[in-house]
Write a structure and sequence with these properties.
This protein is mostly helical and about 450 residues long. It has one domain. It has 18 helices and no strands. It is globular and about 60 Å long.
Length: about 450
């Protein structure tokens, strides 16, 4: 299933001489630097929050923030991926009017979906307080954090445009600035011995500041590239591409919705079936697990940018090269990092307080899924670059249906470890299916002249 690996002596050459990999690594480096700094700052944030609130309060915090984020993703059409793909497509075809119209249309669609998401948060907050927060008095917290959606009106489209125009350094700077602001606010709450409301407000202000900053930066960059009146580009120019754009947006939205219910609502499932304390343990385990994603996450956006271009040009040798090299880079970090957490997990969790030692079994189970997801981080973006956004959707739906049944059976009995088992199982099975499909498609692609070594 997996293409033959290159000789070890050729690995350095893949980094030094191939321009595709050089661009991926350079742009990933900017985001990695920012994410590393942000992760360190985020750790200090969560350490103070976990110690201040205790497991129950920390679980409630995670439930509140994840609820708003997931409602937003429920209504989102993943405009970021659409912007990268179609702004790139029309720019390559020297049709700047259509490229401008794509960004404009994506921004307007995202604005509408964000407003709908905020309305849903306000409407559902009383129910979420009872079912997830286990206390009707927490309704105000769900509504409060939902205000971030109003600031986040077109942040996803804006981030994607900055990525396409190679402004990764600017994205990195804004990410670090947001983390510093949030840390300062949480530190103030910690010193003042504040409550969960103060911590929620700190996260709200930090996220809102980032969203506004990234949107303004994208507007400035669009003006610099396309002229000051880019926003007047007529949407009618996209009429002949309407069905294709709608199909792409719908497919990515359905994929996101399925993952929302299965993989990304894990804390909400734990809160629903096992309560805030179990959710606190699960969130603590996920916080340390998330560190493993820090060096790999930047590769997703930067690799997708290159895959979209190379697939459009039918440069299959370059595509295969990117996939092999990307997995080698991800493995070099993910394998030792997972082993390290497996061994040192109890010690790390003790930093949050003695009660968080109960989160170690959850952490150990999550590591299996995390390793596979990181090594094959390109599964979904490869199929999207190939124009097969529907295949991941069907895969997530089939496997996700089985996972939801498993959640209903095991989480009430096992709590946080049960959710970890379902999360890892879903991640591994879907990754294996998508890797197989993607590699078959790439292997079957007709050869085209390429500078990259296969």
């Amino acid at each position: 299933m997996w293409p033959s690996l290159p000789p070890l002596r050729s690995v350095p050459d893949r980094f030094v001489h191939n321009p595709l990999v050089q661009r991926v690594l350079r742009n990933s480096g900017y985001i990695l630097s920012a994410n590393t700094a942000s992760a360190a700052l985020s750790f200090l944030q969560t350490l103070m929050a976990a110690r201040l609130l205790g497991a129950a309060g920390y679980g409630l915090l995670g439930t509140v923030t994840v609820f708003a984020s997931n409602v937003n993703r429920l209504t989102s059409f993943r405009m970021g991926e659409l912007v990268v793909r179609y702004v790139g497509k029309f720019s390559a075809e020297e049709q700047p009017e259509k490229a401008m119209a794509v960004f404009k249309a994506a921004g307007l669609t995202e604005m509408l979906s964000s407003l709908v998401a905020f309305g849903l948060v306000v409407l559902l907050s009383p129910l979420a307080a009872v079912l997830l927060g286990k206390d009707a008095a927490t309704s105000g917290l769900f509504t409060l954090y939902g205000l971030v959606l109003l600031a986040n009106l077109m942040a996803e489209s804006s981030t994607a445009l900055l990525q396409y125009f190679n402004r990764f350094r600017l994205i990195a700077a804004l990410t670090i600035a947001q983390s510093l602001l949030t840390l300062a606010l949480i530190a103030g709450a910690f010193v003042a011995r504040g409550d969960v409301r103060m911590i929620v407000l700190a996260y709200l202000i930090g996220k809102a500041a980032w969203a506004v900053g990234i949107t303004l930066a994208a507007a400035v960059e669009a003006g610099r590239r396309w002229g000051g009146r880019w926003w007047t580009a007529p949407l009618a120019g996209l009429r002949e591409h309407g069905r294709e754009l709608a199909r792409f947006a719908f497919s990515t939205n359905v994929s996101t919705t399925i993952n929302l219910v299965t993989r990304d609502s894990d804390i909400l499932w734990v809160s629903l079936f096992s309560g805030p304390v179990a959710a606190g343990y699960y969130k603590a385990a996920r916080t340390f697990i998330s560190v493993i994603f820090v060096p790999v996450d930047p590769l997703i956006g930067t690799t997708y940018r290159e895959l979209a271009r190379e697939c459009a040009a039918r440069q299959w040798a370059n595509v295969r090269h990117l996939l092999r090299t990307g997995s080698l880079i991800a493995s070099a970090w993910a394998v030792p990092a997972c082993l390290g957490l497996l061994v040192l997990g109890p010690w790390f969790l003790s930093w949050y307080g003695a009660e968080y030692g109960a989160a170690y079994p959850t952490m150990a189970i999550l590591l299996a899924g995390v390793l596979v997801v990181n090594v094959f981080y390109w599964t979904r973006i490869l199929l999207h670059a190939l124009g097969q956004a529907g295949y991941p959707t069907r895969t997530y739906l089939a496997v996700g249906a089985l996972q939801v049944i498993g959640i209903a059976l095991f989480v009430p009995m096992l709590g946080a470890p049960g959710m970890a088992l379902m999360w890892s199982g879903y991640s591994i099975v879907t990754s294996v299916i998508l890797v197989r499909k993607g590699l078959l498609e790439v292997r079957g692609g007709p050869a085209a002249g390429s500078a990259a070594a296969g």
